[in-house]
Task: structure prediction
Amino acid sequence: MKLHIIGICGTFMGGVARLARDLGHIVTGSDANTYPPMSTQLESLGITLYEGFAAEQIDHDIDIVVVGNSISRGNPELEHVLERGLRYTSGAQWLGEHVLQDRWVLAVAGTHGKTTTSSMLAWILDQNDLAPGYLIGGVPENFGQSARLGNTPFFVIEADEYDTAFSDKRSKFVHYRPRTLVLNNLEFDHADIFADLHAIQTQVHHLIKTIPSQGQIIHNRHTPALDELLKWGVWSETARFGSSDAEWVASKTSDDGSRFEINHKGSAHAVAWDLIGDHNVMNALAAVAAAHHVGIRVEHAVESLSTFKSVKRRMEKIYDNNGIRIFDDFAHHPTAIKTTLEGLRHQVGKQAIIAVLEPRSNTMKQGIHKHLLSDALSAADACFLYANGDVNWDISELENEQISTHHTVDSLLEALISKTTQLGDQAINVVVMSNGGFENLHQRLISKLPTPC
Result:
């Protein structure tokens, strides 16, 4: 089969391209910005990439065009597809029909923690000789790539609630038909496509209806929106995690979450790893429960967690020298920001924490969660917010002795360097939080600091 993918360079669509190539298909693709590392990864697989969109980039003998969910009407290639009556589909639908069909799919859904939990789950299966395929919206450090086909029936997928394509406004995950479903949590997000929390619950309910009766839904007992949703109807086995009355319980043995016990059916299993934060304890609990559903013993799953290395851009330490540590983190929702900073605070004690935030998601740009931000940032000693022109509310409302706002990355960087100098010789932890490139702030900051020996 010969495929052309419009919008190929996102993590999800790039993963679809990799899987298609591994199945032996001929793949070409286009995107507005084709740049490393995704461009080089795809080109190394023999995939032809085009910079920009043009009708002539779609070969006359193409079998099917896969349209990414970032592509809208007016795109030259999409208009060509529709005008010519070419066969087209979405990335999620193509994946469901050509990769996930007849496989035991383990899907991880929820507002927070999908990428990390999916990565943990894939690693646990891999380390217990189940060699799963996977498609994850990030790069697990243990694997070094966001997708692989695998050679067993098992496939782990990050089940994103975002819409499928220009012509299919259902969430992508309705195409996956999992047998094991993790529901990590549920809050309002993606204000650009969902009117309210109820609209997201409706999509998750569609997903729940696709789980077979002998499948299992593993859900977080600390989430009222999930409790409410499950009352709409469940036709499968369920397992709860998180609360003291759940089947799966975690008890921290260190404040920062780097040590904890997983309790299941009266047995306790100790975990010691490099990750921190209550949110990662919950992610681990969900991953172990999902692995147990496919037959992995709890003690073996826990052993695998000890070698788990997290995910790129999830509290990834990118600089450590002369008492200054810099972390690159994807957190962009107040809940994720809060748990990330609190976990770091438990780890570093009274050391200085500086939070740097780019409110880049559509929900943050619209100010939907602005009333939660001050509290979410409270574990940091100083916070620098980037108030660029895309933000539709006055971020300066949040300014106080702890929080400052900046309208350019240059001014923010200058203030950030001044703050690190002001703190002198004390240990400093800088957490840069964004789900985008942040105008390369991370590397620009590092370039101003001493080079590690």
Remarks:
- The mean pLDDT is 91.
- The chain has 14 helices and 23 strands.
- The longest strand covers residues 26-31.
